[in-house]
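Lecture 7 notes: from sequence to structure.

We start with a single chain of 451 residues. Read the sequence below before looking at the structure.
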Amino acid sequence: MEDATQRSAKWKETDIRALFDEEGGTVDSRIYTDQDLYDLEMERLFGRSWLFLAHESQFKKTGDYFATYMGDDPVIVVRQQDGSIKAFLNQCRHRGMRICRNDGGNARAFTCPYHGWAYDIGGNLVNVPMEKEAYGAVDKRKWSATAVPRVEHHKGLIFGNWDVNAPSLADYLGEARFYMDAMLDRAEGGTEMIGGVIKWVVPCNWKLAAEQFCSDMYHVFITHASGFIAMAPPEAPAGGPGPVQEGLQFRASWGGHGSGLFIGAGGFEQMAMTAGVETAEYWCIDSAPEAERRLGRSRGREMNGAHMTVFPSLSFLAGTNAVRVWHPRGPNEIEIWAFTLVDAAAPDNVKEQVRLSGQRGFGPSGIFEQDDGENWVEVQRVLQGHQARKTRFNVQMGLGKGGIDDARFPGRLGYVYSENAARGFYAHWLRMMTEPNWSTLGPTQVKHAAE
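Now the structure, written as tokens:
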């Protein structure tokens, strides 16, 4: 890889390595605001990581397509005639115009609205207006759309990677697959996406949101206290339900992925309050026996309230199945894309309740989304201050307390109220920003006995 730090007059490798101190549990706040660091992130993180593209249920027929982003690059994802999925830059090779300006649909070709160069569903250049008269001949193979070289799947989720040398998606996800499958593999037929994609812009750095979903159960009963009180049943104690005490936090042995979850009783009540009674009955009672057969008792019946981030920018909440992608738009802004996934085998009334509860809780005007967004926006506003940008933030929760051994769950485990996964997130961020290639960056542990 070309040494990007040589192109940055501001950030040398030693300077970047000082931005996060895992042993001391501190992070330099400039990682949320600096344009040069953001540019390096686009090359070194988003240019080398597996990034979520779409869900397979969006592509039922040949030519079905979905327009999305990989980092800040627009891409088109398309079902091919042989059933495979391809992705390529949404950019005409002539003058750089988008060749698709719709969010999704079905197409036989993508034609640039500027000069009319046309590409088939595989991204191959197939027509150049007045080619013979104006050019003589155009090497169409050479000037086809820029393909995403790696596209792979995990249980309905489609990921892409610009780096041909990256590890396989399975190795990249590693232990994270165990936790992802608690949402993706509960029932025969897997999941499907319903209700389209809701998009909105929040003026904050993408890492504030991704880190929270990776690690932060700590904020829930403070930030969302008013929401829980408002949604609590009449017989609930005054002041809200209070923090749940039993749970674990997962930090991936490699890869920056993280999750937090509660264990044991209370899952039904918690889900009924946030996702509705019908959803809780389906998840905790009706589908639980099949989920236990497929996933084991710990994932099928005992874990609840789980949050997760797949590094760098895919996050979700199991149960409410609020899935979101943090598309970066510069160091100070993200575009949030929210999806709703449901078990394909779930009854229609449950699917509808999951969709509605997702919008009410985690849509752009959702009660919990508003709480989270206010925090992220205010942090970003504070970081506009000259003195504020000189501060280091504290990520010391759980530091030095030792891990938890629990044979039911893979990865490096800690108490649910911890910042162990946040430190894992930033440790991997630092490695991606400083390691030159996959010979030193690659996974050191990708398999686990519990898989």
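The radius of gyration is 22 Å. Keep this in mind for problem set 3.
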